[in-house]
Amino acid sequence: MFDFSFPELLLILVVALVVIGPERLPRVARTMGFWVGRARSVFNSVKRDVEREVRLDELKQAERDFRKDTDLGLDQDVMKGTEGRSARRGSGGARTRGDSGAAGARPSIADDGGGGSAADSSAGSTGEGRQGDDGNT
């Protein structure tokens, strides 16, 4: 921190001995040592806090980058999955669950032109089609 050579320290001690006196010099030296130690402690504490904050900021930045990369990767995976499904639907070879043309499949309410809701058509796809509120088929 400060660059003091031995002759400079010797000069400071001689001046302090003359100004303060030999009877108070040990007490002043102890007090000075205490305050220098406390100043070093505070300085080291602040230094550790600053380093901790810098590391925390670096970790937060790394987390943001990681989330951005994973979100981008998930978006690409979703897009790939969506493209694959739309290609299969567009082929015309596969039938969906609600198709009434499948062999042995029961037509749902939506298939008979009655204007059934999506819930009715999904119920029909599982074989539990309803014709009325009483639950009879």
Give the topology.
Layout: H1 6-20, H2 25-90, H3 118-125
- Which class best fits the helix and strand makeup? mainly alpha
The tally of helices reads 3
Radius of gyration: 42 Å
Extended strand count = 0
Could you give a short description of this structure?
This protein has 137 residues and is mainly α. It has helices at 6-20, 25-90, 118-125.
What report would you give on this structure?
The structure is a single chain. The chain starts with 5 loop residues before the first helix and ends in a 12-residue tail after the last helix. The chain has helices spanning 6-20, 25-90, 118-125. The protein has 137 residues and is mainly alpha-helical. The chain has a domain at 50-82.
Short descriptors:
single chain; 137 residues; rod-shaped; 3 helices; mainly alpha
